């Protein structure tokens, strides 16, 4: 089976490892080209260096950074606009340039809530990515950003509502978390065989471990808790055509894909298996 090239687009350093570290490692292990674009923080900062180490662990190449400032940390990109305050057209253009340069078959980003925490930078990354994936294939948009390239699929990293109680049990009662109805999930990926790699990538974000953010929570968990929290990744395929195809199948539950695919598949439980 040919494994499609995969580009992740996430808001902050560590989001790639937490949200899609298993899928990135799995695709890379199968010989696919993988990469990550990060919307905030700048080269030369500590978190950029940590990102480079995490991507090395995941096999996802060198950091690709849009260079905007984190909404809550102005010093993350000195002299640059906050991601939320920057002109939307500028953000889309910068991401289109990366899409056309990398030419991925599959793109992965945050869901419309911005994942479990609902961080505004995550939400905005979702919006910018959806626009950029469409714009990248249109030759009269951003001609200075390279030759047009249309990714075949866009997947949104998310969490089904049914796993929230287990999440709260593992990490303790924290802020409100955002999740989607289980029937919206179109791909559930078993990344257990790549869990050690994924955890190592999360822990490479040492400054986040030290300040007690989610990598710090994971650092303090026993192995069973890490497995429960991180060994499955859930995605929504952002495609009206695939949603129609799924409804026509009429069977409940997400597909257990071995990899994220470029075609719309049936929404049912199929053997993905541990390899």
TrEMBL record:
<dbReference type="Pfam" id="PF02585">
    <property type="entry name" value="PIG-L"/>
</dbReference>
<keyword id="KW-0862">Zinc</keyword>
<protein>
    <recommendedName>
        <fullName>Mycothiol S-conjugate amidase</fullName>
    </recommendedName>
</protein>
<dbReference type="InterPro" id="IPR024078">
    <property type="entry name" value="LmbE-like_dom_sf"/>
</dbReference>
<dbReference type="InterPro" id="IPR003737">
    <property type="entry name" value="GlcNAc_PI_deacetylase-related"/>
</dbReference>
<keyword id="KW-0614">Plasmid</keyword>
